[in-house]
Design a protein that fits this description.
This protein is mainly α. Helices cover 75% and strands 0% of the residues. The protein has 20 helices and no strands. It is globular, with a radius of gyration of 22 Å.
């Protein structure tokens, strides 16, 4: 028991002193295995086979391909044109520009799924325009940060791919199960913006259209910029839902489709290809390095009896599946304040998997609860990554306090959705 606790304490100490995540968890495993009598260093001899299994995992192959697809679309300028045109389309109603940001967030989530790129791009373009139009700094920052994180739940989501692998469930089923909760969350965002604009018009004023600009012209331009990525989304996700292709094959199709799309729109360049390839390797390498470190951590943790300890605690002392669900959700939510979703997926979620089977809980439903919960980790201070991305994008245009304040209502909306999904499991359809 003491070794299991010590393992987490050492890992968190390494994180807080600035050691990269992969080395923090891997280093903690090595150090504790060397010093503790309850764990054996020989258990790490299983690590090479674990690494081989990770690298040959067909499900995880979808992740870098979807990342590449998203980076190509982001670098090509399609997302920027989309944001500007949708902002013009909705801007004439109170709160319309914020609703336009949500709409763009949905399209970017379904076509890119890269939270950092979405938040930075929308932060650079939308925030200055919203502030200039009289929008509240808190609302401007909150809607951009929250809309940018929609890629964590809207397919093809990296979180869902990782959860599918960790929980050994179909990624295609997870993608299908995410559709209804995603729509509900987007509607929550829109209704919140409309209600705020109605109650406090000064916080989200309507914009005056440009002189000589026709509504028909704006609609045509918006359709022209939105139809190509929407077409690619339909091909990729439609193939998965119809069972024509696996998620990994769909990811390859999306990566190739994004290149063909840039060629068709005459925005392809070798610089674009180089940027997307390098960033895909960097981001994927980071995730796989964390997974290897987490594998070492899990081996030592289980060797020290930590897995059995957690299983016995939940099964004996918290005999109710509902108690397990609420405690598990509470733990994941609190951890989201301090560590990234990747570490939670690879270190914490595997501890819950045996209990999901023990209590007879639908693993798809539980995975969706985790996905919504993990999405909040991007918005919860002090280490919400979407907040960091936004602050880096806007610089001194927004105070950190305004960014934190703007994120709070959207965190509450995500928690409301989580509560609805727990109370009404039929929301999850797959």
């Amino acid at each position: 028991m003491l070794t299991s606790i010590l393992l987490f304490v050492v890992a968190f100490l390494f994180l807080f002193v600035g050691i990269p995540v992969a080395f923090a968890f891997g280093g903690a495993a090595l150090l504790v295995a060397l010093l503790s009598p309850e764990a054996s260093l020989s258990i790490l001899s299983l690590l090479p086979s674990r690494i081989y299994g990770i690298m040959s995992n067909a499900t995880l192959m979808a992740m870098p391909l979807f990342i590449f697809m998203g980076l190509v679309l982001e670098k090509s300028g399609m997302a920027e044109k989309l944001l500007r045109n949708i902002g013009r389309l909705f801007g004439s109603i109170r709160g319309g520009m914020a609703i336009g940001v949500v709409a763009v967030g949905v399209l970017l989530a379904a076509s890119t799924g890269v939270v950092g790129a979405s938040v930075v791009m929308m932060g650079v373009i939308a925030v200055p325009a919203m502030l200039k139009s009289g929008y509240s700094p808190a609302l401007s920052s909150g809607v951009v940060a929250a809309s940018g994180t929609l890629g964590q739940i809207i397919p093809p989501s990296i979180v869902l791919i990782l959860l599918g692998d960790v929980m050994q469930v179909s990624v295609g089923d997870l993608f299908a199960a995410a559709i209804v909760p995603s729509l509900i969350l987007v509607l929550f965002y829109v209704f919140f913006i409309l209600a705020l604009a109605f109650l406090k018009p000064a916080l989200a004023p309507a914009l005056k259209g440009e002189e000589g600009e026709s509504l028909r012209g704006v609609i045509l331009e918006t359709l022209q910029t939105s139809l190509p990525p929407i077409g690619l989304i339909i091909i990729v996700l439609g193939g998965i839902f119809l069972g024509v292709v696996t998620p990994t094959e769909a990811a390859a199709l999306g990566a190739m489709g994004s290149i063909l799309l840039t060629l068709f729109l005459r925005s392809f360049s070798l610089e674009l290809l180089r940027y997307a390839a390098i960033q895909t390797v960097v981001f994927s390498g980071m995730i796989f390095a964390i997974l290897i470190g987490a594998s070492a951590f899990t081996l030592v943790f289980n060797d020290a009896g930590g897995g059995d300890l957690i299983f016995d605690f939940f099964s004996d002392h918290l005999g109710s599946p509902w108690a397990f669900i609420w405690v598990a959700m509470g733990v994941v939510f609190l951890l989201g304040f301090f560590i990234d979703f990747i570490e939670i997926c690879f270190v914490v979620v595997p501890l819950f998997v045996p209990l999901v089977g023990h209590f007879g809980i639908d693993p798809i439903w539980f995975a969706m609860l985790l996905a919504i919960n993990l999405q909040t980790s991007f918005l919860t201070p002090p280490f919400g990554f979407a907040l960091f991305y936004l602050k880096g994008a806007v610089g001194d245009k927004l105070k950190t306090s305004a960014i934190y304040q703007g994120a709070v209502p959207f965190i509450l909306l995500q928690l409301l959705l989580l509560g609805i999904m727990v109370a009404f499991p039929a929301v999850i359809v797959y």
